[in-house]
Specification:
By secondary structure, this protein is mostly helical. The protein has one domain (3-205, 217-568). The chain is 65% helix and 2% strand. It has a two-stranded antiparallel ribbon with strand order 1-2. It is globular, with a radius of gyration of 23 Å.
């Protein structure tokens, strides 16, 4: 540990929040249909989409209609992407000559990218063609991210409305977020990354001569364009198998900083956009503070954990200042550890180091951050939506303690909202622990593990945590490209994405018809330090109580096993 390392971590976290605020203001203008500086260029394009689809963007939908449109759009995206994957061998732009993928892998991959998870049971450079990467995956990176934003936009309108009827128009929210926010931002970032050395090529490969004089074939892809939207869209899927550790995706410390900041940028922007749209800036800044505190403490803890020499090296009398196993030397421990925290705190899942090679407690922390529910800051819109759900549960707990009906942002919180909030929260442990319990005893599932014992359990737990939390990162060692894993992980992604989405929209539908109440002397302030502490407590208790027993059997046991083995050496 040193001051430079702490500075790298602070810079990565701070830049994302600082840049997120002005982008959030702009994003709220897009959600609200206000004039933007891109209107002269994009307004005619937007109108063409509405005419082609027969959509009236001014017609507000009820929550059921909004949810139905969201589910229908994503179902259509799944079918289209599944078809592209299966027919890859006969489609154009396939200089690699790859055949179509298997039915179970196509199912898993289509679900993965539609749900904004980007879990990959395959090696990108050895499995998917240029056409599939560009037309299939990259397109879903845009629209799956925009889908998450629509949820937040609808929820914000529900808090503003005074006995309203609708929560907005899904098709308008989807179109405007894609056109006005994601496309321009991804274009700029892609140009920057390509200028800094990230590969952008339609060629299949290039031949290179190694320093020993040998010949090597290096696969090429249009990586810069996909890296830009995978980070800004908080998707995370890599063009290459080793993701952000690959020099073609992430060639230098500068590109590492830019892409690490991009992971959280739009998530924080959605927080600020929600605050402006719901006219509750001070209250939402309290949510930002809560998430940033947890993220900062986690980053510090991860840095401390990974800058201790590995016990095995200590026992072997090897001088090692940090655990560098699985980490790129060109990034070092600080940039690697903060990336692992921001990617698991968000629903991103891209990696620049091997998570399975972290110390057992480091792996436990990565899992725990995902198990909190993609709120630090999570996905675009989906993160702030779940954070608001946590805020509703917090004011409900506070209301129980003082014997008052809870309120939040001027809306009375009653049984219906809490019921849907619990559905949104409980689907995660049900999916993670349910599938993990079955996989831990099912021979077909166990056949995919590289390791036995606690680390093997960690591989199982990490996989289902990553899937259900729509993260997409993985512990190395698990051979996931098998019918059992592809199918069950796909189901976990579906449950983790769409059950909370529908639950949040149901909350929006319940709130939108309620009157907007003025704050009174009995209203719990939700913009001060007391509420921040209460909210952090609720978040940690929900995560800790649900998952601590499973973590205790996996990475925590492994931690003590390592210490015991070294002590006995």
């Amino acid at each position: 540990m040193n001051i430079q390392g702490w500075g790298e971590i602070a810079l990565t976290l701070g830049l994302a929040v600082l840049l997120g605020w002005p982008i959030g203001v702009y994003m709220s203008r897009v959600w609200n249909g206000e004039r933007t500086w891109l209107d002269p260029v994009l307004k005619p394009v937007e109108a063409v989409f509405y005419r082609a689809a027969g959509v009236d963007p001014k017609r507000s939908q009820g929550w059921l209609g909004y949810a139905g449109a969201l589910l229908a759009f994503n179902a259509a995206g799944f079918v289209l992407l599944y078809a592209i994957l299966r027919l890859q061998g006969v489609l154009p732009m396939n200089p690699q000559g790859f055949a179509g993928v298997s039915p179970h892998l196509a199912f898993n991959t289509a679900v993965s990218f539609v749900t904004n998870t980007n879990w990959q049971s395959y090696g990108g450079e050895t499995t998917l063609s240029t056409f599939t990467q560009m037309v299939g995956l990259t397109v879903q990176n845009f629209v799956s991210a925009a889908t998450g934003a629509t949820i937040a936009a609808a929820l914000a309108r529900a808090f503003v409305a005074n006995r309203g009827e609708g929560v907005g128009n899904f098709w308008a929210d989807l179109t405007r977020t894609t056109l006005y926010v994601l496309l321009p931002a991804a274009f700029v970032l892609a140009v920057v990354l390509s200028g800094l050395g990230v590969v952008q090529s339609l060629a299949a490969s290039v031949h290179a001569t190694t320093v020993e004089g040998g010949s090597q074939t290096l696969p090429l892809f249009p990586a810069a364009s996909q890296v830009a939207i995978k980070q800004l869209g908080i998707n995370g899927g890599g063009v290459f198998n080793v993701n952000g550790a690959h020099p073609f995706e992430n060639p230098s410390p500068l590109t590492n900083l830019i892409t690490a900041v991009a992971i959280n940028l739009m998530g924080w922007a959605a927080f600020f956009a929600f605050g402006r749209s719901a006219m509750a800036g001070r209250d939402i800044r309290a949510l930002v503070a809560s998430a940033l505190i947890i993220l900062s403490v986690s980053s510090a803890a991860m840095y401390v954990i990974e800058t201790q020499p590995a016990p095995a090296l200590v026992a072997a009398h090897v001088d090692a200042a940090a655990n560098m196993e699985g980490k790129e030397v060109r990034f070092g421990a600080p940039a690697s550890t903060v990336w692992s925290v921001v990617t698991t705190g968000a629903s991103n899942g891209s990696v620049n180091s091997m998570h399975a090679s972290y110390m057992p407690l480091g792996g436990a922390l990565q899992m725990f951050l995902m198990q909190l529910g993609e709120i630090l800051p999570g996905g675009i819109g989906s993160g702030i939506a779940i954070m608001v759900v946590m805020a509703l549960l917090s004011v409900f707990v506070a209301g129980l303690m003082v014997g008052r009906t809870p309120e939040y942002l001027g809306k009375k919180i009653e049984a219906r909202e809490i019921q849907f909030a619990m559905i949104a929260v409980l689907v995660l442990p049900l999916a993670i622990l349910g599938f993990s319990a079955v996989a831990a005893v099912f021979p077909t599932a166990l056949a995919g593990l590289l390791n036995k014992g606690p680390h093997g359990l960690s591989e199982i737990l990490y996989a289902y945590t990553s899937a259900a939390a729509n993260n997409g990162s993985a512990f190395a060692g698990l051979t996931a490209n098998a019918p059992w894993w592809n199918t069950t992980l796909g189901l976990g992604m579906l449950f983790g994405r769409f059950v909370p989405a529908v639950a949040v929209l149901a909350i929006a539908g319940s709130l939108v018809v309620k009157p907007k109440l003025a704050a009174s002397t009995g209203t719990l302030p939700t913009d001060n330090g007391l509420f921040i502490g209460l909210l952090i407590g609720v978040i940690l208790i929900l995560g800790g109580l649900q998952f601590l027993p499973a973590l205790a059997l996996g990475p925590i046991v492994e931690h003590f096993q390592v210490l015991a083995a070294v002590a006995g050496a």
